[in-house]
Structure formats: C-alpha cells, structure tokens
Design goal:
With 95 residues, the protein is an alpha/beta fold. The protein is built from four helices and six strands. Helix content is 26%, strand content 21%.
Length: 95
Amino acid sequence: MPLVRRLPKYGFHNPFRSEYAIVNLKALNALGAVEQITPQVLIDAGLVKRKTQPVKILGLGEVGRPLVVQAHKFSKSAMEKIQAAGGRAEVIHGV
C-alpha cells in the first residue's frame, strides 16, 4: 500500500480561506516621511511580499504622527491608534 494511504489525515483544510499579508503599526513608523500609506507603498518597502494578497494592519506598536493608511482590513486596536494620532484608516475593497 502507498505511503500516502498509510499515513493518517489530520484536520480540515478550508479551500476558501483568505490569507492576509500582516503589517504591524511599528513597521509603518519605519517608512519615513510617507503621508499616505497604500498597499503599493508597502510592497515597494518590502513589508508585503505578494502583490496579490490583501493587507491587514495590526495594532502592535505606536503611531507618532498623523497618517492616512489604506488597507483591506484593520484590527480594532490599529484603527483606534491611527485615529488617536490624528490620522485616517481607510478600508479598500477588492484585491
């Protein structure tokens, strides 16, 4: 019998799962004097590896200046920290 049939299958693999490219707020501070942060800016900076993945911003770190951040998804803490610094968090739709 082949090895594939002898080994057990573990868990369930969802074929419709959507994976996001994760970027933390502390990485946005390292971008420098960029006022508007888009997925293309993140790709050019090397923070996002795949162009086709949607971007999600997480709230690890602090924002020291007002930023306009455009991403596909935001965590609740990231959105609060961006707005507390005087910036805007804009949700874009589509990939």
